[in-house]
Design goal:
- The complex is a heterotrimer of chains A (318), B (279) and C (252).
- By secondary structure, chain A is mainly alpha-helical.
- Chain A contains twelve helices and two strands.
- A two-stranded antiparallel ribbon of chain A has the order 1-2.
- In chain A, helix 3 crosses helix 9.
- The longest helix of chain A has 38 residues.
- In chain A, 50% of the residues are buried.
- Chain B has a domain of 179 residues: MetI-like (MetI-like fold, Orthogonal Bundle).
- Chain B is 77% helix and 0% strand.
- Chain C has one domain: Rossmann fold.
- The longest helix of chain C has 14 residues.
- Chain C has a six-stranded mixed β-sheet with strand order 6-7-8-3-9-10, sandwiched between helices. Chain C has a four-stranded antiparallel β-sheet with strand order 2-1-4-5, covered by helices on one side.
- The chains are: A mainly alpha (318), B mainly alpha (279), C alpha/beta (252).
- Chains in contact: A-B, A-C, B-C.
- Chains B and C meet through helix 7 and helix 8 of B and helix 2 and helix 7 of C.
């Protein structure tokens, strides 16, 4: 054999080997997460531009939404989103924190685990099924029982005036409350589990009752984590689309009464985006989407920063 | 002594409030299940699985096209979303520096908190507008955008748990890093990764909002990926808000099937997760 | 003695930590060299630079040269993966692939890299297991899961897996430290036999072990090579005071 009889024991690095390609592909995919985020921001801003140019700030201060006249202003939707989410959060937070405390501190371990699993099931139910239950079961019940009761006994308050429609701001608040309880509960549970045993023992050693131990040792320690959970719940509530769309009545009015129908940002997108009448109409809806995106981005960044340390320590996966 | 008894009373009252809170949380869950079971079971029949919806006014019909559509959408979304999520996680674990990994992780967490209707709008701007039509493709793209961050994060958690000694054993045998990642690291974490995939599929199978203006829905069968396609959640929505009793029944039956599917997926995921802990 | 591996002014940094400082050392062909020193002295770091394991640690920086048969393995044009086939490694804790059978573990180096012909595999499994004196113990349960073996058997399986890829140098990182005395003895006997065919570098914190099995010994302290020479000499008449303090146990 004329060639070198001893083959090279070492391979020459040729740059285009498997490792190089593999690394390239994984880099591409990992960075696509960032790309998706940036793309979202770009697409939404880009598509909103015509509406932003046309209406400026009056888009968020006015309340005229008329596709025929090409007048678009989004205040009623902003109002509906903010009010429904805040009220739902106000109801859901005590319930969730209470349930989380029940699971971690009060219930026997096995039973607590069962409750936690059931709450997680609640989180797994799709939004459209909440909506289905809301419109076919809850709204009729509200209309026949709850709302007449409220009108009769609390009707002197501006919040409970008008006719009982069933589908209403109140229905949206209830359905949202049911839907965000699981997320706040499960994160609060993680946060409470991360409270060091020593903190709890210190309180117990001082003769604290269980509630005093929870109030003085656990809740202050988990404060930022619980706040993160609540803010994450707010993000979920503001972005929630289907269930709200199905029970809120979809009427763009600003009314103090919880019994009247209202409208939210995601709902108007859901209802109108597939059948827009003009470029400007689509652009106005995109602008509402952009506002929604910006709000939820801020909320999520805030919540994640608050939760950063807490859930890392406990190894919890939120 | 008086003070002490006040403290005891306070403790009992607060404990009772926690129990009440828990009951209030679980009651709606119980009610929703009760109604899905009651209405769903009384409405479901063979027709539901083999027929497509009847026009308004006619009774009967089913959601066969919706079920098929949901299956197609999930399959296509997985085809796009799984490789991106899984290999993205491989990057974070095998190559990424701590800072850049943290940024990507953070972005994934934030992305998973963005309302799903926004992903629908983005998919609309990316595919529906340029292609001048609603399509199964656009629907799958929207769903895959929801899937990627979930799969990425769960896969990453699982990969991190694979001991370095296994990776090193393979590398020291002269196996390139890419083969080591796929055949040793990912393989060892397979159960956990599959658990994450099942959970992600469970999540997207019920998504409705992102499909409203991407997949759009279809009264009939669709045979092209570039055409609008039916999906169960969309049909449940349409039927639920309709005024027809008969359509309401279909919606309940659909809800029963969808919930069964999702719980099946969640339970298998849970089961896989558990067997892993034991071994 | 012919030099198989030569370290020339080897420096390893992890970020700002200078873990190995300007080390020059010759490892003789078909000999056993022990690297000893207190924990944290950089002995494992030296070992891991010989098969380029540090390539995978983003913060690690290796400078200087390591010559294998006179060729610098850190030359940019050389593929690190091919180096690891020539320079095998056995780890502190037995690490067989848990999802694989005993049989598959032996040929893992081939299986993970693609395919291997059945007859070739059978032959390789038998010869490798015989070489580590494990064949008689496991020949009836080759298809059993590797995790069913005892710790000592697992470690010999790992050695079998390493020699199955036909390396020329074998690096061992405290291979017996996680094992019971009897298994340790078996591993030591094995190393004695392996040096006929391979060049062996072993890191150990057990000085008696170093004295028993090695031909040469290198003593490291705080990332520096303090003394290197024939084992007999290092353990009887070391030149340096630090070496003497360490081997007589008057140290750290």
């Amino acid at each position: 054999m004329p060639q070198d009889t001893q083959p090279h024991k070492w391979k020459i690095e040729n740059g285009l080997n498997g490792d190089f390609i593999f690394k390239g592909v994984t880099i591409l995919f990992a960075f696509s997460i960032l790309a998706i985020l940036l793309l979202m921001l770009y697409e939404m801003s880009h598509e909103s531009l015509p509406a932003i140019r046309k209406f400026g700030w009056s888009f968020v201060s006015g309340s005229e939404w008329d596709a025929v006249q090409s007048e678009f202003a989004a205040l009623p939707y902003l109002y509906g989103s903010v009010v429904s989410s805040i009220l739902a959060l106000a109801l859901a937070t005590p319930l969730s924190v209470g349930t989380a405390i029940f699971i971690t501190e009060i219930a026997p371990k096995k039973f607590g685990g069962l409750v936690a699993a059931l709450v997680e099931l609640l989180a797994a139910i799709p939004s459209v099924i909440y909506g289905l239950w809301g419109i076919l079961v809850m709204a009729p019940w509200l209309q026949k029982t709850v709302q007449p009761f409220l009108i009769e006994h609390l009707g002197f308050l501006p919040f409970f005036q008008g006719a009982p429609y069933g589908v209403s701001m109140l229905a949206a608040v209830f359905i949202l409350m049911i839907m965000i309880v699981p997320i706040i509960t499960s994160i609060t549970k993680e946060v409470l589990l991360a409270v060091p045993q020593s903190q709890k023992e210190a309180a117990i050693a001082l003769g604290a009752t269980r509630w005093e131990m929870i109030r003085t040792a656990m809740l202050p320690y988990g404060r930022s984590g619980i706040l993160g959970a609540v803010i994450l719940g707010l993000g979920r509530a503001i972005g929630e689309t289907m269930a709200v769309t199905m029970v809120i009545g979809n009427n763009p009015q600003i009314s103090l009464s919880l019994l009247s129908p209202a409208y939210t940002m995601p709902s108007v997108i859901a209802n109108e985006f597939a059948e827009t009448t003009s470029k400007l109409h689509a652009s106005a809806l995109m602008e509402i989407g952009l506002i929604l995106l910006a709000v939820t981005l801020v909320i999520n960044v805030l919540a994640r920063l608050l939760l950063w340390g807490v859930t890392r320590q406990s190894g919890g996966n939120v | 002594m008086k003070i002490f008894s006040f403290r005891k009373l306070n403790n009992s009252v607060m404990t009772l409030s926690m129990v009440m809170a828990t009951i209030l949380v679980l009651v709606p869950l119980g009610l929703i299940f009760f109604h899905i079971m009651k209405m769903g079971l009384s409405s479901i029949n063979l027709d539901f699985f083999v027929q497509i919806p009847k026009p308004t006014g006619e009774t009967g019909g089913g959601m066969a096209n919706g079920m098929a559509g949901t299956f197609v959408l999930i399959a296509l979304a997985s085809l796009i979303g799984l490789p991106v999520g899984i290999l993205g996680a491989v990057y974070l674990v095998e190559y990424g520096g701590t800072r850049i990994s943290a940024v990507i992780r953070f972005a994934a967490d934030v992305l998973s908190g963005i309302p799903s209707i926004i992903t629908g709008m983005v998919a609309y701007a990316m595919l529906v507008e340029p292609m001048k039509g609603f399509s199964a493709l656009a629907g799958s793209l929207a769903l895959s955008l929801i899937m990627v961050p979930i799969v990425l994060r769960t896969t990453e958690e699982q990969l991190k748990m694979v001991p370095d000694t296994l990776r090193e054993a393979s590398l020291a045998l002269g196996v390139p890093l890419w083969r080591t990642s796929l055949k040793v690291t990912l393989r060892s974490a397979m159960k956990g990764v599959v658990t994450g995939i099942l959970l992600a599929i469970a999540r997207i199978s019920g998504e409705t909002a992102p499909l409203l203006f991407t997949a759009l829905g279809n009264q009939f069968w669709s045979n092209k990926l570039t055409e609008p396609i039916a999906a169960m959640p969309l049909q449940i929505f349409t039927f639920a808000i309709s005024p027809y009793e008969d359509w309401h029944r279909l919606a309940w039956a659909g809800a029963l099937v969808l919930v069964t599917l999702m719980f099946g997926l969640s339970l298998s995921a849970r089961y896989l997760g558990r067997t892993k802990q034991q071994s | 003695m012919k030099t198989k591996v030569k370290l020339e002014d080897l420096n390893v940094h992890f970020d700002k930590n200078h873990a190995v400082k300007g080390t020059t050392i010759d490892f003789g062909e078909n000999s056993v060299t022990a690297i000893i020193g207190p924990s944290g002295c950089g002995k494992s770091t030296v070992l891991r630079s010989i098969n380029r394991m540090h390539d995978l640690v983003p913060t690690a920086k290796v400078t200087g040269r390591i010559l294998l048969d006179g060729i610098n393995i850190y030359e940019r044009t050389i593929d690190s993966v091919s180096i690891r086939r020539l320079v095998g490694m056995v780890f502190q804790k037995p690490n067989p692939f848990p999802a694989m059978s005993v049989y598959d573990n032996v040929i893992a180096g081939y299986k993970l890299n693609g395919r291997i012909n059945k007859d070739e595999a059978d032959e390789l499994v038998e010869s490798s297991l015989k070489r580590v004196a494990l064949w008689d113990e496991v020949k009836d349960r080759l298809k059993a899961n590797s995790m069913e073996l005892s710790g000592g058997q697992q470690q010999r399986l790992c050695i079998a897996r390493t020699i199955a890829v036909k390396p020329e140098v074998i690096l061992m990182d405290e291979p017996a430290s996680a094992l019971d005395p009897l298994s340790t003895l078996k591993i030591e006997e094995l190393i004695e036999g392996l040096k006929e065919k391979y060049t062996i570098v072993i890191v150990t914190h057990n000085m008696q072990q170093a004295a028993r099995i090695s031909d040469y010994t290198a003593f490291f302290y705080l990332g520096e090579l303090i003394e290197f020479g024939e084992t007999k000499k290092i353990f009887t008449t070391p030149d340096k005071k630090q070496t003497e303090d360490y081997i007589t146990g008057r140290f750290g």
